[in-house]
């Protein structure tokens, strides 16, 4: 999965979101070593300090942890990753409901639409 | 080593009656990538030349590591001018050797490695290279030094987008954690993701000097969009 950034929001926020997506999707599985800041910053084409800030946020949330000599690792706490997955899915659901509401759909209609679409795809 | 790498106090430069810089106060720390952004004729190149000691201030002062630009500061500053300054008859490999002789902090191995990634042959004479390739050679030479301060005046103006990405990655990978890179450009959207801070300069005045994410957060737009708004013609 590549890295793309949109204009109006801080890069730091977007890096946190994309790193979380990589953890949830299994691109960075539990216990996996994350590339060093420099290397990953060059890959993503972002400032190393900004990426460092995103790493610190993920460390604060317990999703990453740094080992003094061997680098930085994804948490081995699978339930934490599960929780994050649920949280991201809830956020998507909220966005969907919010936007269909703006189109004039009731919650029931929105749910019905999702059910039908999921059967078709 | 002081915390402050570059400092300008009331820095002014006039060419005859023309004011190029009008009392600039500026402080740059270490370990940052900073964009010096402004329209044509805003004073970007003048500021960079003053930092190099190529120009002397009309008023005020500019200090690097607390010192007036001179041999001691030039040993720790790597400068990429906005124009070609290297003798065009020289071959690329001779330029690498010349830089190796000139600068104690130059890594010939690193230069050779970057040149080969960019598929530039050491045997080429500079005058036989395209404008963009010449710029790449100059940037490789500038980034192959282990400097404390890199002053890059329009480093990506003449190169194609693919090479631009490579050059930005090169900059990201080659400056040390304590070094600061000052990039002057008007191609903001290309360099925006790699910047820590942005400086807007206009008519010789500093309009703002802020962290990039701070601008994006409070203005709700990219630095590129914000620049277009501030400098709307």
Describe the structure.
The complex is a heterodimer of chains A (121) and B (233). Chain A contains five helices and three strands; from the N terminus they run αβααββαα. Chain A has helices spanning 11-25, 37-44, 48-60, 78-102, 107-120, and strands spanning 33-34, 64-67, 71-74. Chain A has a three-stranded antiparallel sheet with strand order 1-3-2. Chain A folds into two domains: 11-76, Orthogonal Bundle (Arc Repressor Mutant, subunit A); 79-120. Helix content of chain A is 62%, strand content 8%. Chain B is of the alpha/beta class and 233 residues long. Chain B has a single domain, classed as P-loop containing nucleotide triphosphate hydrolases (Rossmann fold, 3-Layer(aba) Sandwich), CATH 3.40.50. Chain B contains nine helices and nine strands. In chain B, β8 (197-202) and β9 form a beta hairpin. Chain B starts with a strand and ends with a helix. The model of chain B has no long low-confidence stretch (mean pLDDT 91). The A-B interface holds A 5, 7-12, 38, 41-42, 44-50 and B 31-33, 165, 168-169, 172-173, 177, 193-196, 212-214, 216-217, 220-222, 224-225.
By CATH, the topology of chain B is Rossmann fold
CATH architecture of the largest domain in chain A: Orthogonal Bundle
Secondary structure class of chain A reads: mainly alpha
Domains counted in the coordinates of chain A: how many?
2
Most extensive chain-chain interface: A-B, 17 and 23 residues
User: What is the topology, as strand order, of the major beta sheet of chain B?
Assistant: 5-6-7-3-8-9
Let me know the largest β-sheet of chain A: 3 strands, antiparallel
| Rg of Cα set of chain A | 17 Å
Query: Helical proportion of chain B?
Result: 25-40%
């Amino acid at each position: 999965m590549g890295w793309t950034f949109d204009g109006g929001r801080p890069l730091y926020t977007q890096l946190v979101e994309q790193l979380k997506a990589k953890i949830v999707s299994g691109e960075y599985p539990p216990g996996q070593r994350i590339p060093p800041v420099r290397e990953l910053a060059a890959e993503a084409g972002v400032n190393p300090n900004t990426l460092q800030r995103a790493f610190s946020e993920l460390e604060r949330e317990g999703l990453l942890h740094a080992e003094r000599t061997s680098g930085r690792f994804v948490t081995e706490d699978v339930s934490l990753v599960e929780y994050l997955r649920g949280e991201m899915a809830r956020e998507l659901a909220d966005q969907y409901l919010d936007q269909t509401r703006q189109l004039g759909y009731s919650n029931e209609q929105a749910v019905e639409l999702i059910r039908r679409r999921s059967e078709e795809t | 080593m002081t915390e402050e790498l570059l400092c300008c106090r009331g820095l002014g430069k006039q060419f005859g009656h023309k004011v190029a810089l009008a009392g600039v106060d500026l402080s740059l720390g270490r370990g940052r990538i900073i964009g010096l952004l402004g329209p044509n004729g805003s004073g970007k190149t003048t500021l960079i030349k003053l930092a190099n000691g190529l120009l002397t201030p009309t008023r005020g002062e500019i200090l690097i590591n607390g010192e007036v630009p001179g041999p001691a500061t030039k040993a720790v500053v790597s400068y990429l001018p906005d124009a070609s300054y290297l003798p065009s008859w020289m071959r690329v490999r001779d330029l690498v050797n010349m830089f190796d002789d000139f600068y104690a902090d130059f890594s010939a191995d690193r230069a050779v490695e970057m040149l080969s990634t960019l598929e530039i042959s050491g045997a080429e004479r500079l005058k036989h290279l395209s404008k963009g390739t010449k710029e790449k050679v100059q940037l490789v030479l500038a980034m192959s030094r282990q400097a404390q301060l890199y002053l890059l005046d329009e480093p990506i103006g003449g190169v194609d987008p693919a090479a631009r990405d490579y050059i930005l990655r090169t900059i990201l990978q080659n400056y040390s954690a304590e070094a600061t890179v000052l990039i002057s450009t008007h191609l903001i959207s290309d360099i925006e993701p790699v910047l820590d801070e942005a400086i807007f300069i206009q008519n010789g005045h500093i309009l703002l000097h802020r962290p990039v994410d701070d601008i994006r957060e409070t203005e709700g737009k990219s630095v590129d969009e914000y620049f277009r708004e501030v400098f709307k013609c």
